[in-house]
Design goal:
Chain B: This is Acetolactate synthase. Chain B: Its cofactor is Mg(2+); thiamine diphosphate. The structure holds two protein chains of two kinds. Chain A is about 30% helix and about 35% strand. Chain A is an alpha+beta fold. Chain B is an alpha/beta fold. Chain B folds into three domains: about 1-175, Rossmann fold; about 190-360, TPP-binding domain (Rossmann fold); about 375-545, Rossmann fold (3-Layer(aba) Sandwich). Chain B has 22 helices and 20 strands. In chain B, the strands form four sheets. Chain B has a six-stranded parallel beta sheet with strand order 3-2-4-5-7-6. A six-stranded parallel beta sheet of chain B has the order 11-10-9-12-13-14, with helices on both faces. Chain B has a six-stranded parallel beta sheet with strand order 16-15-17-18-20-19, with helices on both faces. The chains are: A alpha+beta, B alpha/beta.
Chain lengths: ~190, ~600
Amino acid sequence: MNAQNLNAPSAYFMAAVTETPESHTLSVLVDNEPGVLARVIGLFSGRGYNIDSLTVSETEHEKHLSRITIVTTGTPLVIEQIHHQLERLVPIHRVTNLTVEARGRNFEKPLERELALIKVAGVGEKRLEALRLADAFRATVIDATAEHFVFEITGRTNKVDQFISILKPLGLVEVSRSGVAALQRGPEGL
Amino acid sequence: MKREMTGAEMVLQALKDQGVEHVFGYPGGAVLPIYDEIIQQDAVRHVLVRHEQGAGHAAEGYARSTGKPGVVLVTSGPGATNMVTALADAMLDSIPMVCITGQVPTNLIGNDAFQECDTVGITRPCTKHNWLVRRVEDLPRILHEAFYVATTGRPGPVVIDIPKDVQFATGEYEGPRHVAHKSYRPRVKGDMDAIRRAVELLSRARRPIFYTGGGVINSGPAACQLLRELIELTGAPITSTLMGLGAFPASGKQWLGMLGMHGTYEANMAMHDCDVMINIGARFDDRITGRLDAFSPNSLKVHVDIDPSSINKTVTVDIPIVGDVAHVLEDMVRLWRTGSHQIDKAALDGWWSQIDGWRARNSLAYRPSEDIIMPQYAIQRLYEKTKGRETYVSTEVGQHQMWAAQFFGFEEPNHWLTSGGLGTMGYGLPAAIGAQVAHPEALCVDIAGDASILMNIQEMSTAVQFGLPVKIFILNNQYMGMVRQWQQLLHGNRLSHSYMESLPDFVKLAEAYGGHGIRVDKPADLDAALDEMIATPKPVIFDCRVANLTNCFPMIPSGKAHNEMLLPDEANDEAIANAISADGKALV
């Protein structure tokens, strides 16, 4: 028995894990009512699923609809489970696996963007270097003093990751990230 | 039809409009306005329990034995938290239940007020859905929606948390209307193409088996009738989970008995060796499958379930069919008939002779005794004595539960009430009370263990107050028998805290509550005592002293496959001590 089996939710899952985990982006349309986010998060924590990123905001005010975008990791079977478990929640209107849909259209991923606010403090050459990098990454300066910058950057998760890691030796102070917002390509909606 | 009324009046009006006749509950500060309405009417009868958990299980027993939702009413704080076990139980066994809880007034929510708890937060993972009603305008809609959600699709428990000021507030009441729910739309009709493929697969099978579960019973009497029809048409063998007992008659020729950890040898071997498995309304639970990577390795599998999340959860299947069992079975029976399908006769005969070979192994055998009552014998006698009577059997959890499942033959659905998924000790007595409330003329027996019965024994008082002549049949071996069995299997026979010291005198206990007590310890006296129990028109506690150290076999030891059962005649001390490998010991 390997370590994975010992950590399995039920001790009966002794079958060897043959599928490899993949990252999927789910778009979930829900009633914007109290507790709906707790239901979604509770489902993930209660059943031991991963949340890599989660964003939520009201998207259709008149209909009281919110859209939750969840990036999760799991084997294809686990992803299918997550999809169906989400659909069991009463206030959920629709669950769409954007990653699967994107693959169906021969794209690797759906449209995904993240916004980050990044504070860097420093003087002299490091400060100039940070500004040059921001330019290269098309980040904008939204706040500054003689000792610091706050950059705003939008892009795919790996681009934001890369920008942050480059800024680390240049006086990175703190970061706030929005999590992933995602839509399907093409003219149709959810 | 709209009328002005208070929130508390709305609750009672909605219960009436939903056809509710009985409510199980316990009053408290935050539900007093509703209780004040209850006493001023006669349409909804209230059964006062002695502990809120008892109300929950009574509602489950009521629901399970009638097919209607069970309704409970409890107060805020401890009233709600005491309900949690029953809600979790109903969640895992898919029992329709509507639980109304009182809550502190809205302006006090979040203030750590007296008897306040976050009821919707606490019950969120153990309900199908729950609501905190903050405005009386929303109350009628939520009340009706709650019944709709609890009873449709895969049934389950729901909670409506009503703050006290909302109960006092006045608003417009509206009766139930048939409007499509904005997001909840369970699917009942199965995909015809998948059903067609399933029927064709079945017709080409050489070693078919039907594996059915509680979903058949939840789907209703029509589903059970259609199942019986399909089994007869195909000539295939059928086994069932604990939750599904009664959907197919135990006296039927094609019945193999229950499957799983304590199922029969023939049922488990047939599951292991079949080439086509038709799962109807069961969920490949770990008690059923045993070791997953060796579960029925050579079969093509069909899975009918109303809940898409049950499909491919633990066992991947070849033909999934999402839909209500009765709807899908209706299509299957029709297609089978119109297609003049038939399973190859020679193959089926061969399969049956193989099954008869396993049957001949007589896996439920036990060594009879003239001096001591064997627990299996006690159940057999109880079964014989109650045959031909309208009998509802509930159980607690443990060895007695498995023996009841093995030795009590159920002919009809809705007559077997047991806590399958959650395994709740203390379930049986309140469940029997719930069944008795629904069926006053029937015989309602709780087959219990000496440990389990003490978990909700206070409900004897409820039974006496409401004239509910439930029978508590305790297989008293002075142990938590199943715990002890596992300690023997897994922990070198070190019986850590599984011996029940200082058990009460159950006869005196029965009398103290105003019931009748019977004690028997000789097999020769059993029949007469059972007659006495059945004839007594009030609650009875029957203290049946059985062999202390008997274990429940056959058994699939943890981490083993269906074809690696431990049979009773092989289960000597050494076999028991070595039955489970080091890997298996980590399992539950």
